[in-house]
Amino acid sequence: MDEFRDVTVVKKANVYFDGKVTSRTVIFQDGSKKTLGVMLPGEFEFNTGDKEIMEIHSGELEVLLPGETDWEKISGGMSFEVPANSKFKLKVKTLTDYCCSFFEA
Fold first, then answer.
1. What would the pLDDT profile of 58-97 be if each residue is shown by its tens digit?
2. Do 72 and 45 form a contact (C-beta atoms < 8 A)?
3. What's the pTM?
4. Given CB 3.0 to 4.6 Å as the disulfide criterion, which of 8, 9, 71, 89 pairs with 62?
């Protein structure tokens, strides 16, 4: 899906890690949410409340998912899933454009 139709966009940006990760929240008519964002190179740790699926549109990164010991290489066109109520780590190698979908736990 290249575009979203009939949505609400929250104007205030979500800004993390001194501006190295930013996103905007998109709310769909059924109440589901996604964020569209950009990550600059760096290492980051995120906490989840809901289950998340991160689609990487462009860029390169490595992800360390909960319970794993090996980092997984991810690049544009790939995605990964993060369980609810967990933590995951990212090593962002290049400017990365992403879409994160949230699924209530």
1. 999 999 999 999 999 999 999 999 999 999 999 999 999 9
2. no
3. 0.93
4. 71
**Parallel, antiparallel or unpaired: strands 79-82 and 51-58:** antiparallel
Residue 44, class by beta-carbon neighbours within 10 Å (0-12 exposed, 13-18 middle, 19+ buried)?
Answer: middle
Domains, the chain, with CATH or none: 7-103 (2.60.120.10)
DSSP sequence for 56-71: EEE-EEEEE-TT--S-
Distance set, CA 47 to CA 2, 9, 25, 65, 83 (Å): 27, 23, 17, 11, 10
Q: How far apart are CA 81 and CA 76, in angstroms?
A: 15
Q: Are 42 and 74 in contact (CB under 8 A)?
A: no
